Amino acid sequence: MGLALKQIGLSAATLLIGGGLGWAGHQQWQVQRPAVETPTAANSIVPAALNTAQQAQLPEVAIAAPTPSNPNFIADAVNQVGAAVVRIDAQNGDIEAAEGLDNPFFRRFFGDEMPLPQEPFQQGTGSGFIIATNGRIITNAHVVEGASQVTVTLTDGRTFEGAVVGIDKVTDVAAIQIEAENLPAVVFGATADLSPGQWAIAIGNPLGLDNTVTAGIISALGRSSTEVGIPDKRVQFIQTDAAINPGNSGGPLLNDQGEVIGMNTAIRRDAQGLGFAIPVETFSRIAQQLFEDGEVQHPYLGIQMVLLNPEMRDRINAEGELNVKVDADDGVLIVRVLEDTPAAAGGLQAGDIIQQVNGKSVETPTDVQAQVDAGEIGQPLTVEILREGETQAVTVRPMPLPAQLQ
User: Fold this and answer.
1) Among 168, 172, 256, 367, which one carries the catalytic annotation?
2) Is 298 an annotated catalytic residue?
3) Which residue of the set 249, 256, 298, 373 is catalytic?
4) Cα dihedral 158, 159, 163, 167 in deg (nearest 10)
5) Domain shared by 273 and 369, yes or no
6) pLDDT of 53-104, one tens digit each?
7) 142 is an active site residue
8) Residue 343 belongs to a domain with what CATH number?
9) Is 249 an active-site residue?
10) What DSSP letter does each residue of 176-204 carry, written as one string?
11) Degrees (nearest 5) of the Cα angle 379, 385, 386?
């Protein structure tokens, strides 16, 4: 229908949905009274007309006594976390067959006519970080997806065979377990207080260069998967200008205190000066489910939505495919309800304008998706809609996101 459809329920972009801390140094505060000076200078802070008693009645003023900025704050943050950042080598294909056919014994007989293995052998390198001292590690799903063998290398040189506990392609998060104890682990921060302009520090193994540190700032928050160009994901990304290249994927993004605020992902190979990270609240929630259950089930409604504006309204009315007349200039418009889905069972219809989900106002399809994700599979979800000028409440019960949509 030529519409820029946003599908929820699959990810932010396929929307069949379903559904620093800038460094300023620590400040020490002390209460002082304005200094009493002999009024010899024109800018004396105590007027000569005030006597001693009047001066004593001046209000107390809190004066900041800032200490100098720490020029080594990036190094300090990296030192806190660096030992918990790991290198991940993922190998695909028949490794033993590939190695065997490369044996000089066989080459003596076959020479250049050596038979090739049925499946090509491929190896990729990424990053990850330890989130628990008992060997729990997380990385990007695309780093280990389809791997027949995963090798984890610590900064002290030790290597371990990693077991992929589970992957979630919808958020691009994977969980790995290694057999080790008393390992260094990262400390989680939070994104609630982040704002553009604050420091961002990335650690990883870009292009195979181990333990590389880059720094920049938070460029933007809440970038939807569609904006980033990967509509099949359900993530609102942190954008940073800290260099993130292939091999950085799965490594941590830190604030200036050395706390992990995101997981770096090299998802845009054509990006120039743009890096993206999965927020800590997202990957920590997904990781917990992966380590506990080995999989993640995402709530799914089964609708397609667009963000209304006057141009989109006119296009929809002109094409007439919805069989409804749209009068609103803004809001989240349902353009399709898929058959045999919770949305269809609950009574949602094409042409409905979503105003609230579970009592939370929504302004964009991304807002709707976020509220659906916050719900639980099988539990009632109240969707307030505007239909033909009247406000109605519809109850739907999300189902698990179908495997073919992941």
Assistant:
1) 172
2) no
3) 249
4) 90
5) no
6) 544 554 554 444 444 467 789 999 999 999 999 999 998 754 443 344 455 5
7) yes
8) 2.30.42.10
9) yes
10) EE-S--S-----B--STT--TTSEEEEEE
11) 170
